[in-house]
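Recap from last week: sequence in, structure out.
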Amino acid sequence: MNSGELLRIIFYLYLGATLVQLAVWWGVFARLAFAAENKSGVAGPDKLPPASVVICARNEADNLKRNVPAILAQAYPAPWELVVVDDASDDDTPTVLQAFAEQNARLRVIRIDEKVWPGKKHALARGVDAARYDHIFLTDADCRPASGNWLTHLAGHFSVRPDVEIVLGYAPMQPVPGAFNRWVRFETAYTAVQYLSFALAGMPYMGVGRNMAWKRSLYKRAGGFAAHMDMPSGDDDLLVNAAAGRGNVAVCLHPESFVYSPGKSDWRDWSRQKHRHLSAGKRYRPGHQMVLTMLSLSHILHYFLLLVLLIAGFGMVTVALCCLLRSFSLLFLYGKILTRLREFHLLSQVPIYDALLAVHYGAFVPISLINNQHAHTWK
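Predicted structure tokens:
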């Protein structure tokens, strides 16, 4: 095979990768860009289900001081409770929770004296078992709802559509100074673009436990966390991956329903979190793994083969047109999506961060999947 034939093969691979990218962006991700305005609020107060908010906390005294008041301040008209599971904390978490419980009868505390299982699934299972109500709402101790209507917006989907068993919300990172934080916020937004768009397209494959709700009946039907209790991660996405289907998932996009977590500015902290999440991805359904692999591989090939063809000077007109078509498509759709997700200020950096995503998928993800040393801890 001579160099001309090799470049022709590379050229066609580049075209194929770019076409896959365009098909996913316009066929799937555009659903998030053009989704109808959130209608969860049409449910009357008398139709909202009783709710149990479950939070797991391990050595989270400071975060609980900051965020429990925002949870307890939810203006939810139906009966509801807050269940916090103290997962064998050895800081001031028990004292902080006791003080809150004495002030507000809505808060119930479950104490686990000894840490046995990795991750928080055992603690979360204890919280679900202790919950009084059958609609379970999840967030983390370091997270804060955007408003006092967070619970109402998520719960409204259960009332409007009786077939809904899972509600997926958006959980952005708070902005803090620094370029790395902007990258993390962009990567978090792109992850949301993926799982929210595929859910809207009828192929839900994951959600994030920082902002999610599901029915206890679905949890029991899926066998709880028994199938992956050995893993520290996956209490959120693996449950959704096992139990979600075309008709039982709703997406909540109202900005008052967002739940913010602390902005990360430290590479090591973020990389540990990504290690855990990627380790859970190994147990997704084969079809979901295949689709996500195709998406990331086409992203990598679009940039890598573009560079090869530009250096070789092969098919420049067609290559440039494909590149421009994808670039303009992304800027247009990102403009709508990032506006919806209240991250429009990241739009000017999309060309840079989109290229960095290709590096992320091509280098960081494979290394993380091979080197799983950080996947055995939670707190």
